[in-house]
Amino acid sequence: MGKAKKVKARRKLSGAPAGARGGPAKASSNPFEVKVNRQKFQILGRKTRHDVGLPGVSRARALRKRTQTLLKEYKERDKSNVFRDKRFGEYNSSMTPEEKMTKRFALEQQRHHEKKSIYNLNEDEELTHYGQSLADIEKHNDIVDSDSDAEDRGVLSAELTAAHFGGGGKLLHKKTPQEGEEQEKPKSRKELIEELIAKSKQEKRERQAQREDALELTEKLDQDWKEIQTLLSHKTPKSENRDKKEKPKPDAYDVMVRELGFEMKAQPSSRMKTEAELAKEEQERLRKLEAERLRRMLGKDEDEDVKKPKHTSADDLSDGFVLDKDDRRLLSYKDGKMNVEETEEQSKEASDTESNAEEGDSSGGEDTEESDGPEGHSDLESNAESEEEDQEPAKEQWQTPRKGLLGREERAGKAARDELPYTFAAPESYEELRAVLSGRSLEEQLLVVERIQKCTHPSLAEGNKAKLEKLFGFLLEYIGDLATNDPPDLRVIDKLVVQLYHLCQMFPAPASEAVKFVLRDAMHEMEEMIEAKGRTPWPGLGVLIYLKITGLLFPTSDFWHPVVTPALVCLSQLLTKCPILSLQDAVKGLFVCCVFLEYVTLSQRFIPELINFLLGILYIATPNKASRGSTLVHPFRALGKNSELLVVSDKEDAATWQRSSLSLRWASGLRAPTSTEANHIRLSCLAVGLALLKRCVLMYGALPSFHAITAPLRALLKDHLAECSHPRELQELCQSTLTEMDSQKQVCRPLTCEKSRPVPLKLFTPRLTGFSALVRLVIRLPQPPKPQCPAQKIIFL
Q1: Which one of 129, 395, 470, 606 has the fewest CB atoms closer than 10 angstroms to its CB?
Q2: Which of 115-119, 183-187, 660-664 has the lowest mean pLDDT?
Q3: How far apart, in whole angstroms, are the C-alpha atoms of residue 562 and residue 573?
Q4: What is the pLDDT of residue 371?
Q5: pLDDT digits over 577-619, tens only?
Q6: Are 419 and 362 in contact (CB under 8 A)?
Q7: So what's the pLDDT on residue 54?
Q8: Taking the CB of residue 395, how many other CB atoms lie within 10 A of it?
Q9: How many domains does the chain contain in total?
Q10: Do residue 531 and residue 495 come from a single domain?
Q11: Is residue 448 part of a domain?
Q12: Is residue 210 situated within a structural domain?
């Protein structure tokens, strides 16, 4: 025991490894590869795992695993074929090689004897026909007709037996059945076999024919039975029932689905061009058309600008030539000889050839084909009797094409000169614009203005914007001049408003300034006349058209607009300051009322000047009486020269009147109307006034004071205007207006005091003393903040 202890102590002192004498070696860990996972808190009873980790060892293990798995997958990422060894027992270590080979041989034999497919005839399987092997039949030991349907199938005939088994001796010495005939020459074996084959084929054909006849008879019997069966059962055939049944109509949804199936799919299109690109293309198109027009006007050919090749190649065939000019020469005859004009400046030269006329020829007009003279002109000679007769028609015949060509060129040049140019420069003054537009038709004027805008688009050049702004003012002035014509060109004005609208949308600020300038001038003239005479006459038709155009170019529903608001003031001034002295003034006033209604249709503003003017129109259309139930204000007078301006006393003129639109040509005053026309104008003015009044009734029917406003109008329509002998259409219009007035409901409410909260009485504040004052102070004291720590709470207390 002591010796063993000494040995152990010696080992410890020497530090020899434990496995040096055959013991297990203990793995020593590198302290630099050990990672200690420290915990924040130590919990009793919890078992800790992964206190110490070996990152290097874990990393090496992970790399080894990746090499065995992911690396193989990475190498085989683009490979689809995999070689697999499916030999039986290849990886079974418990089997000996002899057992493996024995088992493999057994499986191969089993796989070989199994039939893989019923359609595979190449397998080693015995095939039979009527119980006989096909291999035996192919040896031709017995010739048996397999197609025979006879009862003695499989029984050999005597001839066949004699031919094969008897050696053919009896067949060679066969005799004919007829007695007394000489013995025939015996047939050879080949002939007998051929005869046998022919006989079998004939029998086969007969059987086939019998089979086909039987099949036809069977089909016929089937058809006859079907017909009889339908008669017995008293039912119609299915085909007839199918025809009688009506096909259901397709549903709307099904029809739509089918239509969508056949609908063409959307095709990709090019991007939308900008406004500048479109303007550039339009300018190029107009320039090209103008160049073509100038070329036609000057009579130039299209190919003059094309450069011609100066050098002619030796291989040129000269088949692409073009005639530069008409080099045809005029052919004429003189004294039986031909004259050829080389140029227009040179004189005619006659050729000195003798004419050989044929004697005895009555016609004298046939030409000989053979030429005896040195120059060969014998085919152009004629008889002396027909020289003078043929000379003039020949000249006219050859001069006609040249004259026709010159006439066509002149007509083409004239048409090009009369054609409207495609490009126009923007006018710098009103006189230039008037010179371009005057003398042209309506379509041509519109086309000229449109082409000016396209050629002077703001995106094409830098100064085009200012030119188009000037063009707007020039067009306004031109419209004013058209309104002063006799009769006024209202159709041209109506079409030019569209061009004004386009320019106003492009340049709203300059357009508004131009319109305000025109309206300002009209207002200044009115104010000067009012200051001088106290009243002003109605302006010309140009100012009225400017007011109409203002409502078309700018929005009229705004509460305040820099252009429309001054126009409304101008319209109200016209209805209150301009007196009605003639039919021309009445027509102008009604036109102003129409414009006023167009201005306030959307906003539905109440216009008292409009109602007052319509009341005056109805007043001067009734005869004067002592009391009419209404009071007139300026510009109308209850009594005076024009108090019965619209009264019609002639019944014949009233009977011939037909309701139509009131023409503005009567507002120009350039031609005085006749008495019949004047009566028709009076009735038309009354009809327009009633129509405007009806529109006002429909517009202002919701106003609380509607019935108070229309009371004078109702009195005139019911008591005075109904008594006049007006045409039936006017009476119906008057009655419908009264009906609309009466149908409006009364929406007035009684006056009531405004509801408000009662004012409380003034109370004296009591004086607080003693305990009540202390309570009030305590109540008003703010609550102490929530203490955050005990020290703050102590300080607060």
Answers
A1: 129
A2: 115-119
A3: 18
A4: 38
A5: 899 988 999 999 999 999 999 999 999 999 999 999 999 998 8
A6: no
A7: 85
A8: 15
A9: 2
A10: no
A11: yes
A12: no
**How does DSSP assign 599-613, residue by residue?**
HTTTT----HHHHHH
Q: In sequence order, which residues have a C-beta less than 8 Å from that of residue 382 and are 6 or more positions away?
A: 333, 336, 355, 357, 364, 365, 367, 390
Q: How far is CA 617 from CA 112, 614, 620, in A?
A: 123, 5, 5
How far is it, in rounded angstroms, from Cα 423 to Cα 443? Answer: 16
Is residue 439 located within the same domain as residue 499?
Answer: yes
**Does residue 566 contact residue 603 with C-beta atoms inside 8 Å?**
no
Cβ-count burial of 709 within 10 angstroms (0-12 exposed, 13-18 middle, 19+ buried)? middle
Residues 552 and 641 in one domain: yes
- Does residue 394 or residue 41 have the better pLDDT? 41
- Quick check: 513 and 575 in contact, CB under 8 A? no
Question: Domain ends where: 462, 484, 506?
Answer: 506
Same domain for 497 and 603: no
Q: How far apart are CA 466 and CA 623, in angstroms?
A: 58
- C-beta of residue 627 within 8 angstroms of C-beta of residue 565: no
pLDDT, residue 210, reads 93
Tokens 């003639």 belong to: 582
Rounded Cα–Cα distance for residues 726 and 657 (Å): 10
Over range 72-88, report the average pLDDT: 83
Domain match, 549 and 662 both: yes
Average pLDDT for 729-738: 90
The pLDDT value given to residue 766: 64
Distance CA 724, CA 682 (A): 14
* Spatial CA neighbour of 714 closest among 611, 644, 645, 639: 611
Tell whether 676 and 619 lie within a shared domain: yes
670, 676, 681, 682: CA torsion to nearest 10 = 130
Residue 10 CA: distances (Å) to CA of 5, 16, 21, 22, 25: 9, 9, 14, 17, 19
Helices (H) then strands (E): counts for the chain: 29, 7
| Across 760-773, average pLDDT | 65
Which of 431-445, 677-691, 692-706, 718-732 has the least mean pLDDT? 718-732
| Nearest residue to 738 via CA among 712, 724, 717 | 717
- Residues paired with 337 in a beta bridge: 334
Cβ–Cβ under 8 Å, residues 488 and 446: no
For the purposes of burial, counting CB atoms within 10 Å of the CB of 114, is it exposed (0-12), middle (13-18) or buried (19 or more)?
Answer: exposed
Domain presence at residue 461: yes
Asked which of 506, 530, 565 is the last residue of a domain, the reply is 506
Distance (Å) of CA 260 to CA 297, 321, 499, 609: 55, 58, 43, 61
Helices 583-599 and 564-577 meet at what angle, rounded to 10?
Answer: 150
Residues composing the chain: 797
Q: What is the per-residue pLDDT for 147?
A: 47
Domain of 532 in residue numbering reads as: 518-695
Tell me which range, 248-257, 348-357, 536-545, 783-792, is most confidently predicted by mean pLDDT. Answer: 536-545
| Rounded Cα distance, 720 and 734, in Å | 11
Instruction: Output the six-digit token pair for 149.
Output: 């349907």
Residues 6+ apart with CB under 8 A from 236: 230, 244
Query: Which segments within 471-515 are labelled E, that is strand?
Result: none
pLDDT, one tens digit per residue, over 220-239 is: 888 888 878 777 655 555 55
Q: Which residues contact 500 (CB under 8 A, 6 or more apart)?
A: 472, 475, 476, 479, 511, 549, 553
Q: Look up residue 337 and give its DSSP letter.
A: E
Residue 339's beta-bridge partner residues?
332, 350
Do 481 and 554 fall within a single domain?
no
Q: In what order do the strands lie in the sheet with 331-334?
A: 331-334, 337-340, 349-350
> E strand or H helix at 742, and its extent?
helix 728-743
- Residues 492, 531, single domain; the answer is no
Q: How far is Cα 515 from Cα 503, in angstroms, rounded to an integer?
A: 13
Rounded Cα distance, 192 and 215, in Å: 35
